[in-house]
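[job 4471] stage=fold_predict status=RUNNING
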Amino acid sequence: MSVTTEINKPKAILRTVMYGAVSAAMLVAVFSHTDAITSLFSLGGIYAALPIATVFAFSFAHGAFASNLWSALGIEATTKKTAPRPAESVPRPAQRPRARLRMSA
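[job 4471] inference complete, writing structure tokens
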């Protein structure tokens, strides 16, 4: 393991616990207040954006939890840098001669 992973590991563990607690609290809040949330979301108009905002909030909290969990476990994405491949030259087919119409009078 590298030095940067060891330094970030306690921070990742703390963030994992924090985002896990936030995710769990959000789930408990939604499932314990389903009637109020359903009536609020079904009002229409501008309230129609609330389910979308709620899904984004859940997605952010769960994504941050999962990302920090992988970091705490020491699983990181590879950061292999590759040189850009040169553009391949595609040979163009030979241009066909155009047919010429001869008109006789």
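[job 4471] summary: Residues 3-72 form one domain.
[job 4471] exit 0
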